[in-house]
Fold:
Amino acid sequence: MRYPIDPDSFGFLVTDLTRLIRTEMDRLIAEAGLGITPGDARTLSHAARAGSIRQTLLAERIGVEAMTVSSSLDRLEAQGLIVRSADPADRRAKLVRVTEAGEAMLARIAPLAARLRAGAGQGVSAEEWQGFIGTLKTVRDNLTAVRESGRKVAAE
Structure:
């Protein structure tokens, strides 16, 4: 007997949404002629979200290899959108910080993201959208807690 796969299960829905959001945002960024690649825009956005962050942790949060984020950061740094500095806690590690020019680039990206959200939210009331966002935050927090408890168990 074959195991039935539900294409509308939580994991598939989240994966589909992630792929669709990324594809559409990539298209919007490429069409906008901002002078950065969609991948670089993603890296810049994640760096801004995190504040000053180690390069390796930034790669983990984005879900890419360290070399991939390093190449993106090289391009962003060459354009003056980010700066890297030695981490005072570990001189071998690099901290990434978004510059004022990077903030200005993010301000150019923001209307594209708003356009994407508007399209995604068609037919959804403001109340439903806020509830949806709240549910996503709860699920994220729950999965973070599960991950952390798993790390603690593995360390024991």
